[in-house]
Design goal:
Rossmann fold; Alpha-Beta Plaits; 306 residues; alpha/beta; five-stranded parallel sheet
């Protein structure tokens, strides 16, 4: 995997960049920044770096300032940073590590040391990414899990408060799923869940958060999406699920859709109304999309989340 890793080299001296690039270009993809601000820009642009080699002494914005900003940004905070600098005192190294750097390489650059330490950090980054992915995803469907959904929802609510974006949520419950497990077995039930998850993946935008909420329940969080558009999308997904027939089994789902209202302060409030709409869809015969009532606040869902 090392040959697929991306490393961002940051130094205001071209000779130093050339020396580092000469050590690493045969094994890694390289991105180059000649200053701190450019480093911050490139670190947020795909492909995100797997590692940043960061000079300390630079004009306008030094490496310590750059490190602080990268570690404060949710997009870049998990990217490991190795300081590369002529400052070689114990105090300088300690300060750099306290800021969040994972290693400290002193100049003049020694190619064998650079390649060895970079290789170690790339391996650790891949292991860390794998563990983080497992912690945030449902292992059966590979959708996001409830923990990530709630964390993302809180972030999106903050965006809505600042920018006034529309935020809608779908709650989906597979109809008669217990009957599927009882009649066809749990393996068939797992195939049904994976097939439905694939429908959601193929019909979602990059900014949508699609999560398995638990059991046969799914939640899709849609920013920049008013209720009427969310209803249209829910109907599209409902029809695709009905036509899916995973393992030859006819499956339908009931959808509850809600848009965040001005008086709603928490994700629980929003999701409670979507949950109430799901129950209404089931009461009305299942396999349908129902918009949430504005004044419905379901208290039981808060217990489920906690």
């Amino acid at each position: 995997m090392a040959d697929q890793a991306t490393i961002l080299l940051v130094d205001d001296t071209r000779t130093n960049i050339q020396l580092l690039a000469g050590c690493l270009k045969s094994q890694y993809r390289l991105k180059i920044a000649m200053g701190g601000q450019r480093c911050i820009e490139l670190a947020q642009n795909p492909p995100l770096p797997d590692l940043i080699l960061l000079d300390v002494i630079m004009p306008e914005m030094d490496g310590y300032q750059v490190c602080r900003q990268l570690k404060a940004n949710p997009i870049t905070k998990h990217i490991p940073i190795i300081f590369v600098t002529g400052r070689d005192s114990d105090e300088d190294e300690e300060f750099g590590l306290q800021l969040g750097a994972v290693d400290y390489i002193t100049k003049p650059i020694r190619p064998a040391i650079v390649t060895a330490r970079v290789s170690t950090q790339i391996q650790l980054k891949h292991q860390s990414d794998e563990l983080r992915n497992m912690a945030l995803h449902d292992q059966l469907t590979q959708l996001y899990n409830r923990h990530f959904l709630i964390e993302s929802a809180n972030n999106k609510l903050a965006h809505v408060e600042r920018h006034g974006n529309e935020l809608s949520v779908m709650m989906i419950d597979i109809d008669y799923f217990k009957h599927v497990n009882d009649e066809y077995g749990h393996h068939a039930g797992d195939e049904v869940l994976k097939g439905i998850a694939e429908v959601f993946k193929q019909n979602s935008r990059k900014e949508d958060v699609v999560a398995r909420f638990g059991g046969e329940e799914f939640v899709i969080l849609l920013e920049h999406c008013p209720l009427d558009f969310a209803m249209e999308k829910a109907e599209l997904l409902r029809a695709k699920i009905e036509a899916l027939k995973p393992s030859g089994i006819t499956i339908t789902a009931s959808f509850g859709v809600a848009q965040l209202m001005e008086h709603e302060l928490t994700f629980v409030d929003l999701l409670s109304r979507a949950d109430a709409a799901v129950y209404k869809a089931k009461d009305q015969g299942r396999n349908q999309v129902v918009a949430a009532e504005v004044d419905v606040i379901g208290l039981e869902l808060e217990k489920k989340i906690v």
